[in-house]
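Entry 14. Structure prediction run on the chain below.
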Amino acid sequence: MEQLRFEFPAGPPAATRVLVGVVGSGDLEVLLEPGAGGVTTVDITTSVNGYARVWDAQLARVFAAQPRASMQIRIHDFGATPGVVGMRLAEAFEALDAHGQQERP
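Output returned:
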């Protein structure tokens, strides 16, 4: 197992917590929680050692696309490729966006 941590600039804290994937099932899971503001941290637990540069490149593309809310993100990849994790992150961001839209008057 390898533990990786990445940080990216961010805006104000996310509005809510989001979980995608099935916890403890052996399926890829992503947990988003509101951050402290100004920074998003991504902690990855992966069973594939030696892919830190690949993860860095994948996450840089995800966070360069548009400014995001400040979050603490935990990813348990269970051997999924960074590209598949990117799709799961997109799912989590959609859920976060949907929650934010529901709160608006």
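The chain is about 35% helix and 30% strand.
Filed with the rest of this week's runs.
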